[in-house]
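Just scan my protein:

. . .
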Amino acid sequence: MPAKSPKAPRLSPSRINTFIGCPMKYRFQYLDSVPSLPSEPMVRGSFVHRVLELLLKRPPTERTLDAARADFDAAQDEFRQRDDFRLLGMDATDEEAFWESSRECIRAYYRIERPADANVVDLEKWVSAPLGEFEIAGFIDRLERDARGLVVVDYKGGAPKSPRYSTDYLRQLTYYALMCEVQLKETPHSVRIYYLGGGKDDHTRDARVVSQTVTADTLNEVRDTARRVFGEIEAGKSTGRFATNVTKLCEWCDYQQWCPAHGGDPSLAPTEGTQRVELRRRQVGLEPTS
């Protein structure tokens, strides 16, 4: 029996975006595997995705408000047992505020569309595409079909951003369009973001929905970007050098204290990051990971 060919290296759209944002953060997160604590916005985003996944798995006629409330409750029971939720370490007041802000995201979704009208093709669909020495792969949150064809859709729990400031998100979704073209033999005509955060009625539907047409140029752009990023990652692995990108976002970076751009020592990150997470696990009553 011939030996199996080794699997090609794999990049997800989110990994590509992380590297573009800051190569050093990519190193901490994906190469050094430095543990990090979950953030409230991150967990809320996962929770809202889960509620909408449960709702849109139902037949269109069953996607009622009562069904949405039941799916919210089911997801709530599920998340209360999850480590990422428990690691937030919220007290009763903070937890209620978390659930209310999540409800507001669901209400914002209902202000964008009637769920019964969503022509969902698939949810959490795994797609991939080879790009020479490596492949790109990941889960599409929502693939739908309208009169013009397929659309790749994602939900964001933050306040709406204009197309100008949604570049990273739109690029990420265009990778999924490229994977659909390769795997499904059908190219989505658009990618679309639903922004569900922000205050009640503070944003119009048009502000909450940001779309971009998929063209040969946008597909070629992400294809070229993925190849460039893969090459730079491989070079960084060989040399040990990963650039830093100092921006205002550094303030919210999990790895800032070890970043050389901020006077930190990257070699300490795996040990100290693990200690930080294990301390929080003890504080919230979770078993240690090892």
Notes: Strands lie at 10-11, 120-131, 134-146, 149-156, 190-195, 209-213. The CA atoms of residues 153 and 192 lie 5 Å apart.
